[in-house]
């Protein structure tokens, strides 16, 4: 399994990087955070560019490349939830024109005369308030529910990342037909979600390192750039190593998904665990290298810091996935 990007993938990476830099600059992210600017036009740009059509598992590496750049830019759209959490659960029912979110727990399904009744509450749903459809995971299967159903109640929660949308969804006796019950591989979908979250965190961590390097090259102390100090260099090097390790594991996980390799379960867990450990180190060192400036609202560093930290708290943290890996190898 080749672990290097080929020529087409490198071209795709360059294309995406240039497009994201133009369409999602730091000024737009700040406008969303401070003034509540609408991210819908940016989402429509992604749709128009065909980026939302990368839902096929064969495109897992290309999707990972895109997600890394969106993580780096602190993307304010529902792209991550739609492509990595909703789309893998609905298969050919996915509509690239519409945003979606996944309800992964808290919902029960009961049979009735005409179909199924869904009841319950799912918390910490990524982009719950912006989704047009929900993929609802239950013990009886996965169901597709329209967000505008009168029996669906959504509420956005306050979280420390001002650009991130996280909410609570309650289904109060939602009726669905048998046609809306899907037979899908929920475990495989979970692996895609973990990998997508991991590579998004890698992108955010890379942004932290980029900003830190630019700062230490220009910040003067005792007449020289602080980047010339050995202690600063060691911290930057540690950040780089942590990011490269998490990036390699994330792309390996994407490769296992694209190849339908049975190792994808462990690969996805390793990617998410490594990304969690990476953000912990990069968050700490990145903030320290900026000194007091890193704590200010005016510094764009905050958005990357918060996006990386938020990723650790979604879909299980590093310790949880380390336990999965340990249990797997403990049975060998």
From TrEMBL:
Keywords: FAD, Flavoprotein, Oxidoreductase
GO molecular function: acyl-CoA dehydrogenase activity; flavin adenine dinucleotide binding
SUPFAM superfamilies: Acyl-CoA dehydrogenase C-terminal domain-like (SSF47203), Acyl-CoA dehydrogenase NM domain-like (SSF56645)
Positions of the Acyl-CoA dehydrogenase/oxidase C-terminal domain: 196-328
Cofactor requirement: FAD
A Pfam family reported for this protein in Swiss-Prot or TrEMBL: Acyl-CoA_dh_1
InterPro entries tied to this protein: Acyl-CoA_Oxase/DH_mid-dom_sf, AcylCo_DH-like_C, AcylCo_DH/oxidase_C, AcylCoA_DH/ox_N_sf, AcylCoA_DH/oxidase_NM_dom_sf
Family as reported in the entry's similarity comment: Belongs to the acyl-CoA dehydrogenase family.
PANTHER family: ACYL-COA DEHYDROGENASE (PTHR43884), ACYL-COA DEHYDROGENASE FADE28 (PTHR43884:SF20)
Protein name per Swiss-Prot or TrEMBL: Acyl-CoA dehydrogenase
């Amino acid at each position: 399994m080749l672990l290097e990007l080929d020529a087409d993938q490198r071209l795709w990476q360059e294309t995406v990087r240039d497009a994201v830099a133009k369409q999602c600059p730091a000024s737009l992210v700040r406008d969303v955070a401070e003034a509540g600017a609408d991210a819908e036009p940016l989402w429509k740009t992604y749709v128009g560019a065909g980026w939302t059509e990368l839902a096929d598992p064969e495109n897992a590496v290309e999707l990972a490349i895109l997600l890394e750049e969106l993580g780096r830019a602190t993307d304010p759209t529902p792209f991550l939830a739609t492509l990595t959490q909703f789309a893998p659960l609905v298969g050919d029912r996915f509509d690239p024109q519409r945003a979606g979110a996944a309800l992964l727990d808290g919902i029960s399904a009961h049979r009735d005369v005409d179909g199924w009744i869904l009841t319950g509450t799912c918390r910490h749903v990524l982009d719950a308030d912006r989704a047009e459809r929900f993929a609802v995971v239950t013990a009886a299967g996965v169901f597709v529910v329209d967000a505008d159903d009168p029996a669906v109640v959504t509420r956005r929660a306050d979280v420390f990342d001002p650009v991130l949308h996280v909410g609570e969804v309650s289904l109060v006796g939602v009726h669905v037909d048998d046609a809306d019950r899907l037979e899908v591989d929920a475990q495989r979908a979970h692996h895609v979600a973990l990998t997508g979250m991991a590579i998004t965190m890698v992108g955010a961590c890379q942004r932290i390192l980029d900003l830190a390097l630019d700062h230490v090259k220009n910040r003067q102390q005792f007449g020289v750039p602080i980047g010339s100090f050995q202690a600063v260099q060691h911290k930057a090097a540690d950040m780089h190593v942590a990011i490269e390790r998490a990036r390699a594991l994330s792309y390996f996980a994407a490769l296992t998904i694209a190849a339908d390799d049975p190792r994808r379960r462990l690969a996805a867990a390793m990617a998410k665990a490594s990304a969690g450990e990476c953000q912990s180190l990069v968050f700490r060192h990145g903030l320290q290298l900026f000194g007091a400036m890193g704590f200010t609202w005016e510094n764009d560093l905050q958005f990357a810091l918060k996006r990386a930290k938020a990723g650790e708290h979604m879909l299980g943290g590093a310790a949880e996935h380390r336990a999965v890996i340990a249990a797997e190898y403990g049975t060998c």
